Amino acid sequence: MSRLVWQLAASLLAPQISIRTRPDPPGRGGMMLLRRMATLGAAIGLAVGLGSTPASAAPGISTFENKAAPARNCLDFRADYGPYVFGCNFTSYQKWYWNDEFEYTALRQKATGLCLVSRNGQATMKPCSAADDAALWTITPNEVDGATIKNAVSHKCLARMANDRVNTTTCTGGKSQRWQIGWIA
Question: Most buried residue, 71, 118, 159, 168, by CB count within 10 Å?
């Protein structure tokens, strides 16, 4: 199980797991021990369950289609080129795990397992790490104009540049910063 999954499980479960060493109050007959064991069992079950989901615990896989002309260009990545947009072909290079249930989420590419990160104003791909806040994004949906994808550290938006590369820039709400989310699974 990846380190990220264990860290996520630990951060979710840490407040619930507390094994105390004090004795049960009189007349409780071991009930506190049973409760602690039940909580621990639930925590282990949840951690094992998380192992079969993507590191970001995403409910599914999405594509992100940029709204700027020409249309039908999706967020993609090539090791020799970096993050960019390319004609939507729905290969694993254009599929991204993320979780829409949280304010901040990582964007992890299905093909490489790498996460989209903002470093010094540049969008790049790095190994996913729960300790790397630069790999966290807020995705703000807008059914009419498309979602914006904003980095949690730089507070800049993911944008398609003139050369089809993807970078982070000051958020303006323009079409180059708008992304249509397509749920795959």
Answer: 168
76 DSSP assignment? E
Whether this prediction's pTM lies above 0.90 is answered by no
Query: What fold does the segment set 60-183 form as a domain?
Result: Trefoil (Acidic Fibroblast Growth Factor, subunit A) (2.80.10)
Hunting for tokens 């947009």 — which residue is that? 85
Q: CA separation (Å) from 11 to 5, 6, 15? A: 10, 8, 8
Q: What is the pLDDT of residues 130-140, one digit of tens each?
A: 999 999 999 99
pLDDT tens digits for range 9-55: 333 333 333 322 334 444 444 444 334 443 334 333 333 333 333 34
Residues paired with 64 in a beta bridge: 181
- State the Cα–Cα distance between residues 11 and 21, nearest whole angstrom: 22
CB 65 within 8 A of CB 72: yes
Query: Residue ranges per domain, the chain?
Result: 3-50, 60-183
